[in-house]
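pasting for the record
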Amino acid sequence: MTTELFILTAVAVAIASLVQGSTGMGFALIVAPIVGIYAPSLLPVMLLILMLPLNAYVVWRERHALDLHGAGWITAGRIAGTVVGFWVLIAVPASGLSILIGVSTIAAALASLLVPAFTAGRTALIAVGAVTGVTETATGIGGPPLVLAYQHRPAPVLRSTVAFCFLVGEILSLVLLGVTGKVTGEQVSMAVFLLPALAVGALVSAAIHHRLSGRRMRTIVLSFALVSGIAVLVHG
């Protein structure tokens, strides 16, 4: 990766960390389309590694609002979805990864923007977990289904519960990818190099997260994701 591309990625990671730390989602939707254009081989492992400390921090910061009951049902569905997502990752050739990321990004953004309000019960939460397991393990993108389930709950509940579900799911995905030889040194080292940018965004989010309108920020993130997804799809 050239210096220019690394700087671009670092800036994207910092912005994405700020957005997700403030609104509960947006990291993968911002970073995955950009990386998918010039280095799809880094996905989804680099994203999963970077999101581990970010989501752990958000869970700790807003642990008082965590919905453990709902998170438990989502995790139950996530276990099955992770296995399916791994199969998708194996079945799709490297040349088609950009197209998969583009389509997943566009579909996720449209769903989050257009689906009407609803209250998620046990069955819906299990289904959300399964879908998240598939998409995040295959592409690194898994936030929109979780945000759909919690979009009408208080912002601290959304941020902490989504982050907790991310954290558990990312560990599951990375373990599966690791034991099957899908984690490379390049992916890990790139994630490590980007940790300072991640930390900057997370720390800034701590100062402003309580001042932002989650709905407005979510609309901005998803609109950006829609444009980025289209760009990746065209490139692929």
